[in-house]
Amino acid sequence: MAEFLEVALSYPTLPYSVVLCFAVIYWMLAATGIIDEGGIGSGDGADFHSGADGASGLAGMFARMGLGGAPTMLVVLLLAFFGWSITYLVQLFFLQPLPALLRWGIGTGVAFAALIPGAIVSSWVLRPIRRFLMKLRAVPQENILGKVGQVSSPEVTAGHGYATIDDGGAGLILQVRAQPGSRFERGERVRLVRYLPQHNHYLVVGEADLPTLDIPISQVSVGKEKH
Fold first, then answer.
1. Distance CA 220, CA 176 (A)
2. How many Cβ atoms from other residues are within 10 Å of residue 96's Cβ?
């Protein structure tokens, strides 16, 4: 354990260790709902928080590297993991016996060179993920508002949840949210009644609850949230 920490916290592994820890913490917060995963930028920079110019620029750079079409922080996590693995092994087996000056010089080259195989392997890993994420993209709201779907996540609340909608093909996996105070469990049937574009999710009610809404589906504002 001591040797592991020594290598992980020494150059050139240290920069990747820092980025990897940041990315892991980020996704842990997203998994617990503290950070809304719906706000994580896509690899083409189209869905990042508005005003996040630096993040959009990073997503654009990833797209030019062939790493587009996936959340930016997922790409960062993969690059950091594979870069960390390469620099860790090189440091462990080759760089440790070298003098400090030589170790820093060669280590700098290794740190940058590790991005190349890291990007290649990351692109392979992202291929099936991109296909899955295509199902999560919003579709024209007028085509699915009012449709009934089934809760696919453990639960749907006002803060998180997913539902599967039958579109006549492979099906759509959509981010959905319940009204405050409502909760649906996996397998329950819900109806899409509203799309909130700024959050990229749909408001749902129980399949039989539609008559209790104040606004019928025909009057729901598509693409605009009523204030």
1. 16
2. 13
Reported as a single tens digit per residue, the pLDDT across 102-161 is 888 999 999 999 999 988 898 888 888 877 766 555 555 556 788 899 998 888 998 888
Q: Is the peptide bond before 12 cis (omega within 30 degrees of 0)?
A: yes
Instruction: Indicate the pTM of the whole model.
Output: 0.53
The answer to whether the beta carbons of residues 197 and 177 sit under 8 Å apart is: no
Q: Who's near 24: CB < 8 A, 6+ residues apart? A: 77
Q: Record the tokens describing residue 85, joined without a space.
A: 């693995």
pLDDT digits (tens, 9 = 90+) for 26-66: 888 877 766 655 444 444 433 333 333 444 556 666 766 76
Note whether 199 and 174 are within 8 A (CB): no
Pairing state between β 201-206 and 172-178: parallel
Kind of pairing between the strands at 201-206 and 155-156:
unpaired
Helix (H, G, I), strand (E, B) or coil at 193: strand
| Residue in 68, 16, 113, 12 with CA at minimum distance from that of residue 24 | 16
**79-83, 105-109, 209-213: least confident range:** 209-213
> How far does the chain reach from its first CA to its final CA, in angstroms?
56
